[in-house]
Write the structure tokens for this entry.
Amino acid sequence: LSLKNMPTIAVLIPCFNRKEKTLSCLKDIYAQEKEQNVTLDVFIIDGGSSDDTPNNIHKEYPQVNIQVVPGLYWAGGMRKAWYEAIKRKDYDYFWLVNDDTHIFPNCLTELLKADRYTIEQYKKQGIYIGATQDEHNKKTTYGGHKLQKWGKTNAIMLQPHNGIYQICELGNANIMFIPRIVYHKIGGFCDKYTHGIADYDYTLRATRAGIPVLLLPNYAGICNDDHKNSWNWKLPLKKRIDFLYSPKGFAYKEYLYYIHEFFPKYYYIEICKLWLRTLFPAIWNKIKTKR
């Protein structure tokens, strides 16, 4: 394997009603340090923003390829952006980015460095994950997770260690870098997912296919955890059930598909846990507190 001197990279970004964050993310993308003569083409799918995001992007970054597809959530937007990219060119890499992520200037350099490292160590290319931290407490928010044992759902979030690449099985696509050969082998995100889970599914499929998934040695950006306050156990029962099925909630059917695909021994256990949490949240909270 050898790397091109002039790699082409498709940057894939879904967005919705976060105009300032999306524009800030684009600023970070175009401010990246480039150790090589890199070509960056940005593909954005807007899910139908009401804050005039697309027009603002057109005005400040006319080179960006942007489409508005009302009703698309995160995973669907990422799939659509991917589709638009592969129609354009056979890119060397796909760089998946969340628009609420502040990307450090050396991120792209580190992602390409990780690709060289993986080729040297594993004689193949892999998937590269950049960890992010909270802007206030500096704790890790998104990145790579290591399964305690393959086939078991328990996983620990890895902390970046200076100078050390770490293998993981679950990766968040806040910052995810995918070489063309990986895409040709396992495709893009699975179409079973509307919003979340698609990135975990993807890195698990890659691991199953013998593709290494590596966490970068250092933090690659800042992204605050936007999932912490999504679940309110004091909601009325009907709203808790709505949350159970919602793509931005527990995504019941999609989550169970994911469990059946990768952790089949836990399928019925997870069903019970989801319904316990929904129907009897006070009991669930007591159980979790004791643990």
